[in-house]
Design brief:
Layout lengths: L13 H22 L5 H13 L7 H21 L2 H13 L8 H16 L1
Length: 121
């Protein structure tokens, strides 16, 4: 008998959408601090499609684009409000927090901000 894995929540659930905004924000900050460029909304939407596709899930192009725009807004807000050193640390914390076993107060706080962004959108 094979152990059953819990099914992934639907991609349009609030938690999944917040997690996607969080992951995209982390990716955007990493690219910005590593290369000095911001990924486009289309690149972010494509990443969402790739990530969801790995689990056989999908969102409409409009939803993917919306999540990408929210992540861009948050990433630019973070980068604009922190020193480069603090921004690098935040980006690192966010990337580490993509591992569900990693505990971080910074990541929890930023995940809450992702939820607030979604609720306000």
């Amino acid at each position: 008998m094979h152990p059953q894995h819990p099914s992934a929540p639907p991609p349009n659930s609030r938690g999944t959408r917040a997690a996607l905004v969080f992951a995209l924000t982390a990716e955007r900050l990493s690219v910005f601090y590593d290369h000095g460029q911001w990924p486009t909304a289309a690149q972010g939407a494509s990443l969402v499609a790739d990530w969801l596709g790995r689990s056989g899930r999908s969102l409409s192009p409009a939803d993917r684009h919306h999540l990408s725009e929210l992540s861009d807004e948050l990433a630019r807000q973070i980068a604009g409000s922190l020193s480069r050193e603090a921004g690098l640390h935040t980006a690192h914390e966010m990337m580490e927090a993509l591992d569900p076993n990693y505990e971080s107060d910074v990541a929890r706080s930023l995940m809450a901000e992702c939820v607030r962004l979604l609720d306000g959108a």
